[in-house]
Amino acid sequence: MNINDMKINETWHKNNPMPKNANFEQRVKWHLEHRKNCSCRPIPEKLAEKMKAARINF
Ligand SMILES: [Zn+2]
After folding, report:
1. Overall pTM surpassing 0.90 (yes/no)
2. How far is the CA of 39 from the centre of ligand 1 (A)?
3. Rounded to the nearest whole angstrom, what is the distance from the C-alpha of residue 54 to the centroid of ligand 1?
4. How far is the CA of 42 from the centre of ligand 1 (A)?
5. Ligand 1: distance of its center to the CA of 33 in Å?
6. SS (H, E, C) 2-58
7. How remote is the CA of residue 20 from the centroid of ligand 1, in Å?
8. pLDDT digit string, tens, across residues 5-39
């Protein structure tokens, strides 16, 4: 697979690294921002389930 086929917003990623040992809230915030700015990967299924359980709309 050619990496150029992935719709990755490298600038956004450089400016928005995932915090180390991010807690649930930080991961949710990161993924919501990520989804707005980049489509290189979806919200992980496990995180999405936790978000649903916490009644976070996404
Ligand atoms: Zn991305």
Report:
1. no
2. 5
3. 24
4. 9
5. 10
6. CHHHCCCCHHHHHHCCCCCCCCHHHHHHHHHHHHHHCCCCCCCHHHHHHHHHCCCCC
7. 17
8. 568 999 999 999 999 999 999 999 999 999 999 99
**What does the pLDDT average to over 40-49?**
96
At residue 15, the pLDDT reads: 98
CA of 8 to the centre of ligand 1 (A): 5
The two tokens of residue 41 are: 């990967």
Contacts of 28 (CB under 8 A, 6+ apart): 47, 51, 56
Query: From the CA of 9, how far away is ligand 1's center (Å)?
Result: 6
More confident: 58 or 2 = 58
